[in-house]
Amino acid sequence: MSDPLPRAADLLARRLYEAGCRHAFGMPGGEVLTLVDALDKAGIAFHLAKHENAAGFMAEGVHHRDGAPAILLATLGPGAMNGVNVVANALQDRVPMIVLTGCVDADEALTYTHQVMDHAQVFRPITKGSFRLTAEGADIIADKAVSLAMQPRPGPVHIDVPIGVADTPVRETRRRRLTSAAPVAPGGTCLETARRWVAEARRPLAVIGLDVLADNSKCVLQAFLEHFEIPFVTTYKAKGILPEDHRLCLGGAGLSPLADSHLLPLVKAADLILCLGYDPIEMRPGWREVWDPENQRVIDISAVVNDHYMHQAGINIVADTGATLEAIAKGTPGHATWPAGEPQAARAALARAFPEDEVWGPAAIIAEARAALPAGTLATADSGAHRILLSQMWRCDEPRGLIQSSGLCTMGCALPMAIGLKLAAPDRPVISFTGDAGFLMVAGELSTAAEMGGNPIFLVFVDASLSLIELKQRGRQLPNRGVDFGHHDFAAIGRAFGGHGHTVRSRAELRAALEAAQAADRFTVIAAEIARGDYDGRI
């Protein structure tokens, strides 16, 4: 007896497995049951979350460990709409994601309206592309989706899967795969000018971004910066591209006004600025047009053409970062830079601006957590005032050692991303840092953490306020409205969902809670209570 023909859904699932995907997340409905079955048969485990938005962030957490596209699965109508935020986040944070939604068949949709809507119209503006699966084209559509999601700059791709199509048996034909393009480097006068500018620079500064993570140019980048003695800042998503205790590293930039007050003067003083895979979608307005290419030499090496107008450059190179740096460095001698020592002075000033010896408060919590947790700890940051401080103080010794929503700045992302990280890296310590408001948005996912097992740590900054917004409100001398809420027992919430829970109000209590959490058999919620106004002057 011959094996039954595969279904269209099976061909889609097999291509995702081929791309390295081993986990999918979502909330199923009847319209996607065949997809869930196909994923499982292909070797891709489906994990039930409690909300599609959180499911997408769990999928992103896995992606940051295994490098494969994240998979979000949602049923039609309200299920698909629940995932809109995380899909938009994936586009702005350059996360390759395959968004699978179920839909009714075309003939059915002609006379049936319940939950029927045009998913493609919704997802098209927030994805790199949207496809509708067909039975005969299932394998090609799957390959196009994976390829598009992973191409520079990476992002989400949507596939709408009609119920009948998913179940349709398909006779397999010869597989066709888009092949990876070889890294491209510049040549000609553009390359010669770049070499001359690098050779002549005495005060060079590099700004490093997400493209370097996507094209795996870390080793070449490090050799280039060290050869030419170029100090550098990173975007927050690129933190750890080189260990942050590296002598040339000046930390993250673009979000903290306090940090930027020490970094932007270096930008102004530089005689050469190198934008290395720099994607300015993470940067705030303070970094818009901060250099003038008419008066400063600027080399921009990026994966795509500059159409953001956040900055301009004298030399624009659209190419692979590593291949381009190798071409520039070839035959170009290195030399000492910054003879007056301005980068070292800025680094010392940053250390004073973000001290680690505070008795208590958000900075003390971050410093204590960094000291108590071992090297190799993976961290996630939610949006809010704590994220600005954390991103300056949390030292990363590897890429993606701290992940966060940087482009869209979505609240409620850190807890589910930590769940995904722990699933993909069960032997690594994992901690999320969340404000109390962001935690309340996704508290139900503690049940998912309990079901998945492992012992991630969920640390909550508790001050019963939207601290960053309240700070902005006071800054505009507006009355306090809509930013404060009730004080809740977050440790008890953790225990109610089957985990451990601790409330801490001192460094000693926090240290004890972190030590217990590392040895725990399941997740731990640590509620770190701080006073309102503790972020004043700190971010």
From TrEMBL:
<protein>
    <submittedName>
        <fullName>Thiamine pyrophosphate-binding protein</fullName>
    </submittedName>
</protein>
<feature type="domain" description="Thiamine pyrophosphate enzyme TPP-binding">
    <location>
        <begin position="382"/>
        <end position="527"/>
    </location>
</feature>
<dbReference type="InterPro" id="IPR000399">
    <property type="entry name" value="TPP-bd_CS"/>
</dbReference>
<dbReference type="InterPro" id="IPR029061">
    <property type="entry name" value="THDP-binding"/>
</dbReference>
<dbReference type="Pfam" id="PF00205">
    <property type="entry name" value="TPP_enzyme_M"/>
</dbReference>
<dbReference type="InterPro" id="IPR012000">
    <property type="entry name" value="Thiamin_PyroP_enz_cen_dom"/>
</dbReference>
<keyword id="KW-0786">Thiamine pyrophosphate</keyword>
<keyword id="KW-0808">Transferase</keyword>
<dbReference type="Pfam" id="PF02776">
    <property type="entry name" value="TPP_enzyme_N"/>
</dbReference>
<dbReference type="InterPro" id="IPR029035">
    <property type="entry name" value="DHS-like_NAD/FAD-binding_dom"/>
</dbReference>
<dbReference type="InterPro" id="IPR045229">
    <property type="entry name" value="TPP_enz"/>
</dbReference>
<dbReference type="Pfam" id="PF02775">
    <property type="entry name" value="TPP_enzyme_C"/>
</dbReference>
<feature type="domain" description="Thiamine pyrophosphate enzyme N-terminal TPP-binding">
    <location>
        <begin position="7"/>
        <end position="121"/>
    </location>
</feature>
<dbReference type="InterPro" id="IPR012001">
    <property type="entry name" value="Thiamin_PyroP_enz_TPP-bd_dom"/>
</dbReference>
<dbReference type="InterPro" id="IPR011766">
    <property type="entry name" value="TPP_enzyme_TPP-bd"/>
</dbReference>
<comment type="similarity">
    <text>Belongs to the TPP enzyme family.</text>
</comment>
<feature type="domain" description="Thiamine pyrophosphate enzyme central">
    <location>
        <begin position="192"/>
        <end position="328"/>
    </location>
</feature>
